[in-house]
Amino acid sequence: MSARAPTQADIDAFRDAAARFATGVTVAAAAHEGLHHAITATAFASLSLQPPLVLLALDRAGQLIGMVRDSGHVGLSVLSEEQAAIGRRASQRGRRLQALVDEAPTTTGVTGAPLLIGALAWFDCDVESISEHGDHAIIVGRVVAAACTDGEPLIYFTRGYHRLGAAIGGPRD
Question: What's the pTM?
Answer without folding.
Answer: 0.87
